[in-house]
Amino acid sequence: KVPNSLWIQGKEYPTNASITNVTSHILELSTRPLHQQKSHPIGILRKLIEDKLNSTDNAYQVYNDFKPVVTVEENFDSLGFPKDHPGRSKSDTYYVNDQNLFRTHTSAHEMECFGNMQRFATEWSRNGTEKPGFLISADVYRRDEIDRTHYPVFHQMEGARVWKRSETGTSEIRGDLKKLELQLAAESTQLIVEDDNSLDGNPKQDYMTDLEVDLCSKHLKRSVELVVAQVFNKKLQSLGHAGEKTLKVRWIKAYFPWTAPSWEIEVWWQGDWLEVCGCGLVREQVLQNASFEKDSAVGWAFGLGLDRIAMLLFEIPDIRLLWTKDDRFHSQFEEGKITTFEPYSKYPGTVRDVAFWLPSTTSQQQIHENDLMEIVRNRAGDLVESVKLIDEFRHPKTSRVSQCYRINYQSMDRSLTNEEINAIQELVRTDLTDEFQLTLR
Length: 441
Ligand code: PHE
Description:
There is one protein chain. This protein is an alpha+beta fold. The chain has three domains: 1-31 and 69-99, no CATH class; 33-67 and 103-330, BirA Bifunctional Protein, domain 2 (2-Layer Sandwich); 350-440, 2-Layer Sandwich (Alpha-Beta Plaits). The chain contains eleven helices and 16 strands. Strand 14 (384-394) and strand 15 form a beta hairpin. The model has no long low-confidence stretch (mean pLDDT 93).
């Protein structure tokens, strides 16, 4: 089934039948970087955030055209992921072969960008081309479930900022922080921030002083808060909540192998905490891997998910709409503007169930739910709205397990015929039995 090699964006990669799991659907999506489209919601949001962060002191070099296939080294090893980290597994990640994969996050480019920064470290200037920070936006890939908010491709923006340590101590960080605080105070939406500021269970790195940790984490948190305040302010305004000028956010401890300490920020939005961004102070080892001299710099990094925020800002009800080619979608958006999406008529959906006995418990084979999702995606593409396990039971005598999945088929752009869905469903059923030792019921 797997060809001997794959051509991806002008490069040929040898494959490996037991590792290669990238599908033709993914290959096709990888040719359509939405963040580069100026009047696509993802592109509009990206630009908005870049401009905001660069409005303080023009400190960020912007990168938007990194190719999606990276090395295992770039995506995992260089960032200190342990060898047995679940993110590395074939059920979570699209592999091209044992050395190349579709990046699972924009952090895969930290090494290269820190490296660029280091090479020009003597020339850092806010107005020149070599800057003390960067912003990388890119499409990222993860095998996942199927529903209105999950899609195997989404978009992130990585941000990072570094200060060289010098005899002048921390005065530079302090000065940069001051500017940021003033700007945040002038925002029309003010944040109510919950943050216990403790490092319990979230330890600092030995090489940094307490003062550096304090100033760097403040600079990081205020930078992320500036983005949140601005983006959500746009939304509050367009909702006509001009009078509503506060927004609740909270900082919680997190863990990432390449930052310490680490946090996540969540925004209280319409009755739920919305996860927006993971971040932390960059580990010394990561800077050294990018050829910074030992202990010569301190800095931070964040990774912001763009799709969920875009859906909320533009009121896009289904993540598949971001990928439609329908002009009734695209004609509604304009560079630089946050507009509310007006749904064109929703086309009726149709439901099909598939039930089967799992391989017996003595069988070697384990079926990961993501593998099943992948089979459906590969056959149905964007005609599948969601796939859900609706029933599961164990036979009392044989103790074999039966599962039933419900597949909701629905197109964003047109009506579906029963014949075409029956044909797709049949292919899904055949693939399931071809690929797994299961028995259809
Ligand atoms: N890459 C992380 C993620 O995808 C986010 C992150 C970026 C965390 C940078 C820390 C620093 O979840």
